[in-house]
Amino acid sequence: MYRIMFLLKRKPHMTHEQFRAHFERSHAPMALKFCGHLFSQYQRHYADTVWCGGDSRKPDSGFGPTPWNWDLLSVWTLPSEAHYHEVIRIMESPGIKPLFEADEDRIIDREATVMIPCNVADTGTNFAATGTVFDTPTGIPSWN
Questions:
Q1: Cβ-contact 103, 30 below 8 angstroms
Q2: Each residue of 8-41: pLDDT tens digit?
Q3: Strand, helix or coil at 46?
């Protein structure tokens, strides 16, 4: 499994809500129309506030809501890195590239874009002690 995450920021003339509405009405459908057959998942996580700034376990540490520099965490999950390269090939093709670029130029601050390619380590949601710090005779974790 291969995953690409993008942090995207709106252009200054837009509100967070306008950015989201446009992305969902235009950019996401365009990605799905041309490349959706290659995605295992295509998620969009919108946020304009995050929690940070201190130790969340300590009262009055400064941990709390803080304005966020980005508007969207876009997550592409693909079966393999080869599928990602095929997405890029399609998006770079002569008939499609101008569509994506024109749409991005309307709403995305391209200089603030962050791309995070990842190989996914998915252990699922079922706990298995084997090979972990809990793989001890007592089941009590050992970090030795």
A1: yes
A2: 999 999 999 999 999 999 999 999 999 999 999 9
A3: strand
For residue 127, give every residue at least 6 positions away whose Cβ sits within 8 Å of its Cβ, in sequence order, or none.
Answer: none
**Which residues sit opposite 33 in a β-bridge?**
none
Nearest-angstrom CA–CA distance, 80 and 84: 7
The CATH architecture to which 2-119 belongs is 2-Layer Sandwich (3.30)
Sorted by where each begins, the domain ranges of the chain are: 2-119
**Quick check: 49 and 68 in contact, CB under 8 A?**
yes
Indicate the residue type of 76: W
Mean pLDDT of the chain: 93
Instruction: Kindly list the strands in the beta sheet with 2-8, ordered across the sheet, starting from the edge strand earlier in the chain.
Output: 41-46, 72-78, 2-8, 114-119
Q: Which residue in this structure is represented by tokens 């949601």? A: 125
Cα dist from 6 to 42, 46, 58, 123, whole Å: 11, 12, 31, 23
